[in-house]
Amino acid sequence: LDDDQWAAPSRCEGWSVRDVIAHLVGTDRFWAASAAAGLAGTPTRYLEGFDPVATPAAMVDGTRAQPWPEVLADYQRASEALIGSVTALTPDQWAMTAEGPPGHLPVHGIIRHALWDAWIHERDVTVPLDLDQEQHADELAACLEYAVGLGPGLVATGQTSDHGRTGALAVVATDPDVDLLVELGESVVVSHRPAPPGVPVLRGRAIDLIEGLSLRAPLDHGLGDEHLWMISALAVAFDQAPPG
Known about the structure:
Radius of gyration: 18 Å
Order of helices and strands: HHHHHEEHHEEEEHH
Number of strands: 6
């Protein structure tokens, strides 16, 4: 990117492209630290009281004086450190507990959150700059799996007023084809099992579903009002209007 592109507005209100990358420096450093602590058997609790709106904004504000070449260098170092922290993990290590925004999750859960978050922020940069974003089927599937489970996870952990509700949601995506069943209760299970009869269905292109569930675009959900709580918890957390 050139100077003008680094200074251009992103899709994140009030943030330039430089600001988005500065934000990702902080998140990559956190993911690496969280994974390291989890793998050591001492998962962190840094995010107690975390405000998903105010805290990231304050962190980016603290980097305003840093020129973009330094931000880019920091981003490259932070990304490499994150890769190094999870390369060659065993299945048992992937299942160990670490900290993410929804709370304590398996290490594979926080890395899924990191992938989803980075994929969305990549689009926050590429879409307004009219740049092509490489699309990979496995990446889209993983982001969709996480996006449909994140909001219900906030419900399950008592972070919205719908805490205690139970239900199920089928997701039928195309391009690539991904069929999911989201079971909501005291915990959230996202699987590739067939949906039982009568379960509401969310349909669409994978990229459109991820964008809509992540509050970046309208979501053509087709769900009845009684089922909207299953896709609206993230909007509640970010003080935004529900998908629709």
